[in-house]
Amino acid sequence: MFTTVIAGIEGSAADADAIALAELLRAPGGSIVPTRVQPGRPVGHGLHDAARARDADLIVVGSSGRGLVGRILAGDEVIATLRGAPCAVAIAPHGFASAPHALTSIGVGYDGSAQAQTAIDRARELAAPSGARVRALGIASPPQGIVTPIGISAVAALDAARDRAEHCVAQLNGGVIAHAVDGIAHQRLTELSREVDLLVIGSSRRGALGRVLLGSTAESLSREAACPLLVVPAHASSRPGQGRPDRPASAPAA
Q1: What are the C-alpha distances in Å from 26 to residues 6, 30, 102?
Q2: Phi and psi dihedrals of 5, rounded to 5?
Q3: Could you give the residue ranges of the DSSP H alpha helices within 87-230?
Q4: Cα 136 from chain centre
Q5: 8 A C-beta contact, residue 107 and residue 199
Q6: pLDDT in tens, 163-213
Q7: Cα(241)–Cα(254) distance, rounded to whole angstroms?
């Protein structure tokens, strides 16, 4: 669970969703800080600065109510919050506050990387108090254009990816239900999100060029996941560290 949670609010219906998810993920005795970014400041940067100032270990936001065209024209505040966040970020789906929720099943995207291991560790921590099941999914993705090694057929590349995915999930223990599937990562994880109460993934840390060429699984899931999404950076086991108290970006909501 998380001890200090920044809940981003903006005066919309998404505020209640963010607060409800913050309550679900907050540790006993932990605090929730409803935070509205000062007008004129980028929302993502403002929430990041608020997290640093409070030494928070989680930022929670409600999903954007904009349609795809609105996101393209006006920018997506959820995506802006995900990029470069100093701590974990959770996204509540639209309407999350309309019904009570509990953690009985937690899904995790797992590929054997350091960030995936951090996601598994966090999922286990969240599952422990309620005895929730942890389901890990390894995904063998088909080759994608320019990233396919020269001279290697698509079939051979997919077979190799499948072998890697199966090997990764086979290493998991500690009561994790794990299996490997073929497919596109964000599509398969979106399917898993319909079967679990929380989906946890590690952040990819791709640069801007990688996002353009391959897309970002976290950013796609922030729009598509049916359940709350928790994105955990590989360094999330440590606190965000010292912020910049001389630059207060946000203020607690009244």
Answers
A1: 10, 6, 12
A2: -120, 120
A3: 114-127, 154-170, 185-193, 208-214, 217-224
A4: 15
A5: yes
A6: 777 777 777 777 888 888 888 888 999 999 999 999 999 886 554 433 333
A7: 26
